[in-house]
Structure of Serine hydrolase:
Amino acid sequence: MKIYQLLALTFLLSCTNSDSEIEPSSFEVISPEEAGLTHQFVDGLVNDAAELPNIYSFVVLKNGKLLTENYFNGKNRNSLLHIRSITKSVSSLLIGQLISTTKLSEDDYIEPYFTNYWQDSKHPYSDQIQLRHLLDMTSGFEWDESANAIQWYTQISDTWGFFFDHATAYPPNTYWNYNSGGVSLLAKVIGETAQMDCLKYADQVLFTPLEIEEYTWERDGLGNIRTDAGLQLKALNLAKIGLVVMNQGRFDDNQVLDSQWIAESWNPKIRLSGSMGPITSLAYNNLWWIGEYRELSVYFGLGYGGQLLLCVPSLDLVVVANHNFELNPNVANTHSEKFLTAIFKPLLDELID
C-alpha cells in the first residue's frame, strides 16, 4: 500500500502505539492527482522527510484538504508537539481579537502594565514603548536571543524581573532585534485587557471556535502563560490554525478571527536582510514572518529547532513540520533550513511547474 493511500485510514500504522487509540482526522482527504501532483512525487517527498534528522511531523494541506500526514521518531496524530516560537504568531491572533473589539490598540503604551519593573537609570525610553513595538521586535531593549534564550526558558523563575533587568538601549522603532522576552509581556497585556487569564481567553476566542480540544500551554515561574514559546499542539491542529489564518479568519463558514488584523499582519512591514533556506525577501510584522519563493508570497510561523507553519495562499497550501528541539543548538538550528530546502522547495517547484 502506498503512503498516500494510508491517509484514507484513521491512522498511520507505522506511527500507532498499540495502547493508544488514534483519533480520526476531521480533514477531507485530497489525492495527489487532485492536488496537481503524482503518487510517485508525494511518496518520494515523504521518504525524503523520513531521512531528515530528528523530524517528528510532516503535514500538507492542499485546497483545504489533507494531502499527506506523517509522523516519525515515535510520534503520532495524538502527539502534542512543541511549536516553540510559532506560539508568538498564535499570541498575535489573540492580540488581534482584542484590538478588533476596540479594547486594545497597537498605539497603547506598555509602561502602565509594568509599573513595578521600570528603572529610570536603565529605561530612559519606557514612556515611548507601545504595543506595536513588542509585536514588531522594535522595543529597543537590549536582548541577545542566542545568549539569553536557554537561561530564559530553563533557569529563570522571575522572568519579567530578568527581562526588565535589561536596559532600553535604543528608542523604540529604530532597531529590529528578535526578542522573546518582550513578547512574554503580552500575557499580562492580554490578561488585563480581556479581564481573564490569558489561557482562558485563548480557549474562548481561538481553541474552542476551532474545535481544538487538546493542547498544553506552559507557564513561567511567575505563573504567566508563555506567550513567546510555550504552546504544544497536535500537528493537524497547527495546520488548521494556518488554514484559518490563510482563509482570513474563516472556519466552517464562520468568521472566527479578525480578517483586518490578519491582512495587516501579513503585510511586509519590517524588511529584513538575508534568507531562510530558499525563502528570500524576509520581512516581519505582528509576530509573523513573511518571505518569497519564486515570486510567491510565503507567510509563516517559525519556532526554534525546526518548528514550521508555512502558508502559501496563491497555491492554497499549508505545510507543517515539527522536530525535536531538545538538542545541542548547533544541531537544532539546522532543522528548519534542511526541511525548507529538502521538502518545502521541491513541493513548491512541483506545484508551480
Remarks:
- The CA atoms of residues 88 and 228 lie 5 Å apart.
- The longest helix spans residues 335-352.
- The chain has a mean pLDDT of 93.
- The chain is about 30% helix and 15% strand.
